[in-house]
Known about the structure:
Low-confidence stretches: 1-8
Largest sheet: 4 strands, antiparallel
Helix content: 25-40%
Mean pLDDT: 91
Number of strands: 7
Strand order of the largest sheet: 2-3-7-6
Shape: globular
Order of helices and strands: HHHHHHEEEEEEE
Structural class: alpha+beta
Number of helices: 6
Distance between the termini: 46 Å
Strand content: 15-25%
Amino acid sequence: MSSTMTASVAGEAIIPALSAEDQAFLxxxxxxxxxxxxxxxxxxxxxxxxxxxxxxxxxxxxxFKLTVPKSMGGDDRSCAVYTEVCRLLAHGDxxxxxxxxxxxxxxxxxxxxxxxxxxxxxxxxxxMAGELKLAWGLTEPDAGSDARRVRTxxxxxxxxxxMWTLNGEKMFITNAGLADLIIMIARTGEKELSAFxxxxxxxxxxxxxRIHTIGVRASWTAHFKLNNAQGWH
Length: 233
């Protein structure tokens, strides 16, 4: 593999036999990486961010509906195809691959597998199209990624049982500085954790600042607090 930024994307990994349609899709992903990612990755790293339209372009390519069932508007691709997409993107830009992996496996998968019909109707189509930017919030200053030590709390609202009030602090959250919606992990009891849909355009979401990283600087990794923020269970 050439070390230059204009190098061709690495060849296919050894994966199970794929359908002609899956092979054609991966060919489109390789072309996207070669023409739109590799030539720009150094600029994105230096500028600390991706161009705003990158999310819509990836949505048009189908990168946010890889494992979503077709009955929900997704492409229902195999895990083999999903991991190959992440590998190809990582060859072009590791920060971009990290975001696509997190959005699919952590964010959209939560909505698909655990969301209500109303939640899917409100968020899923826009998320798959790249119109709704997502993040997943587990890590905290004193918890790392050890979910047992999560201290962010969620209390059910008496007047609207579907909504909960969240208080706490999160950090090292991939894409949180740009996200419109965060899947927030919070404590509902001494030994109970749950996930909540928290929109960031509310007074209870307090963005503290950006956490600078090395090698994935284009990703807006953030530190924030929740002060009586409202989340949808």
